[in-house]
Amino acid sequence: MDANLVDYLLNTLDPASRADMDNYLRSHPEVQQRLTGLRRTLEVLAVDRGDPELPADLSVRTLERVSAYQNQSLPYAPRVARGQSAGPTGRPWRRLDVAVAAAILVCVGLLVPTVLHRFHHQHQITTCTNNLHQFGNALLHYSDLNPHPERERGTFPNVARQLAPRNVPGSVVPLLMEAGTLPSTASVRCPGNGTPLGCPLTYHELLAMPPEQFNRFAPQLLGCYAYTLGYLRNGQVLGFSNGDGLAPIMSDGPPAEDSPSRCGLGNSSNHRGRGQNVLYADGSVRFLNTHIVNGDDFFRNRNNQVAPGLDRGDSVLGRSDTQVKNPVNSSE
Fold it and tell me: Are 247 and 240 in contact (CB under 8 A)?
């Protein structure tokens, strides 16, 4: 939460994060004192507030400069010769000059770690986006190879058609590899969570395993991602197709039921509760800071179940080992 102090002060947090910070500040008086000190520091700098024209690549060059000295000693400033003034105009420093310089140093000390943290977090999001794009391309290619007689375009793998206990989202990875649309080197671990990790089973190994052994491997098949559970129509679970536009079909995995995510937002733990990358049926990927879009929670159906959607407009994404169940009767 301390890393969000500057964002809170500058009013750049989204409404949900700002509400969380309000609650956090009410219960942590010592953080309120730091916030008050930071506000006073910035008020000194407000004297020189303006809108100078900055180079377009200033942020990139600044981060590169900071990164270059991150693990090195900073160069020493040249000594001031005896009798030489320390100020650029030849006059001694005034009390106001010292205050402004101190304020700048305090702000740099607060802002640089925050900027570096944001830069690192954005890099993780980008690499995860690229990883999901690889799955998106594989799914689109799969749909081209599997045309649907009732639709203009082909369908994505429908894991509900797999015999139990293999009717889980994780089965999609061996299915794509078997179809030749996804390389075996594809990582089922979000790059933000560590080094790449491949799927441990081929489709033939998946079919040959006894149920007890398969259940031990099921959480590893899709790793920390989630895949569509399909939707219900006339008592059957159907799969989505690439003609379904912005229907979510894959994303960073939801938080575990017994482990609420950071700040209680219910977002994926892949990106520290800040949000999740979402792959849509048209192959596009977006990072969202919520799992509720237009009132629809894509981690649960409209009956608040981790189960297939109630219709084609109710997309639900499940973890690798989530058993596909009929949403009308959760005991099935």
Answer: yes
pTM of the model: 0.63
CB 172, CB 318: distance < 8 Å: no
Q: Is residue 27 part of a domain?
A: no
Asked whether 276 and 288 are in contact (CB, 8 A), the reply is: yes
Q: Count CA atoms within 13 Å of residue 75 on its CB side.
A: 5
Work out the mean pLDDT of the chain and round it to a whole number.
Answer: 78
Is residue 84 assigned to a domain? Answer: no
Backbone torsions φ then ψ of 244, nearest 5 degrees = -90, 10
Question: 188-238, pLDDT tens digit by residue?
Answer: 998 878 889 999 999 999 999 999 999 999 999 999 999 999 999 988 999
Is the residue at 311 inside a domain?
A: yes
Q: How many structural domains compose the chain?
A: 1
Amino acid at 97: D
- Residue 143's DSSP bridge partners are none
Burial category of 26 from C-beta neighbours within 10 Å (exposed 0-12, middle 13-18, buried 19 and up): exposed
Q: Which domain holds residue 171?
A: 131-318
Q: How many CA atoms lie within 13 A of 141 on its CB side?
A: 15
β pairing state of 285-288 and 236-238: unpaired
According to DSSP, the β-strands at 292-293 and 285-288 are: unpaired
Which are the contacts of 251, defined by CB distance < 8 A and separation ≥ 6? 132, 225, 226, 268, 276, 277, 278, 279, 298, 317
Q: Is residue 111 part of a domain?
A: no
